[in-house]
Amino acid sequence: MDPLVPTGIFGGSFNPIHTGHIGLARDILRLANLEEVWFLVSPLNPFKRAAGDLLDDRLRFDMVRRALCDEPHLVASDYEFALPKPSYTWQTLAHLRADHPDRQFSLIIGADNWLAFDRWAHPDDILHHHPIIVYPREGYPIDKASLPACVSLVDTGLYPISSTDIRHRVAQGEPVEGLVPPAIVPMVEEYYK
């Protein structure tokens, strides 16, 4: 029997995807010995339709796909789009396990999310079935000694870029070169103006 393909799951709205997301995924790919990192674009939660600043699901997915076109081990995924809404991480991971039995999925989350992990839906189910890779976030210190055996803290350094800041810059007519991949600069400037 072939070994399972180690695959990271990096979920988010990616509204828009930026160079910090990509740099982080590259670091985690190397530090956690993964074959691929899948960028799971989260669909708009039907209960949050009033949010207003979240771009259409397909447009965000298309930007992620284009942004990763030259990154052979980073994969854009619209997998959650076909799942029942709202989609919870434990359900998504269960579906992924069933649909891809050849892969070992590791969940990639920030330190802020790890510190709130006990409030997620079915955290024990996730911990039972999946390694968790935690990356640092400023202001959210993690005590490595307190982590369960299946949770690892990777030293990626910090990527101080935010999608919120990029949207604000576009709305103000400021440049976003260097903050988002060159392939999607025109899309970002068009979609978020």
TrEMBL record:
Keywords, in A-Z order: ATP-binding, NAD, Nucleotide-binding, Nucleotidyltransferase, Pyridine nucleotide biosynthesis, Transferase
Enzyme nomenclature, EC number: 2.7.7.18
Pfam families with a match to the protein in the record: CTP_transf_like (PF01467)
SUPFAM superfamilies listed in its UniProt record: Nucleotidylyl transferase
InterPro entries for this protein: Cyt_trans-like, NadD/NMNAT, Rossmann-like_a/b/a_fold
Residue ranges annotated for the Cytidyltransferase-like domain, each copy included: 9-169
Reactions catalysed: nicotinate beta-D-ribonucleotide + ATP + H(+) = deamido-NAD(+) + diphosphate
Gene3D superfamilies from the UniProt entry: HUPs
Domain of life: Bacteria
Pathway: Cofactor biosynthesis; NAD(+) biosynthesis; deamido-NAD(+) from nicotinate D-ribonucleotide: step 1/1
Enzyme class: transferase
Record GO terms (molecular function): nicotinate-nucleotide adenylyltransferase activity
Sequence similarity: Belongs to the NadD family.
Function recorded in the entry: Catalyzes the reversible adenylation of nicotinate mononucleotide (NaMN) to nicotinic acid adenine dinucleotide (NaAD).
Name recorded for this polypeptide: Probable nicotinate-nucleotide adenylyltransferase
Source organism of this protein record: Hallella faecis
Lineage of source species: Bacteria, Pseudomonadati, Bacteroidota, Bacteroidia, Bacteroidales
Gene from which this protein is expressed: nadD
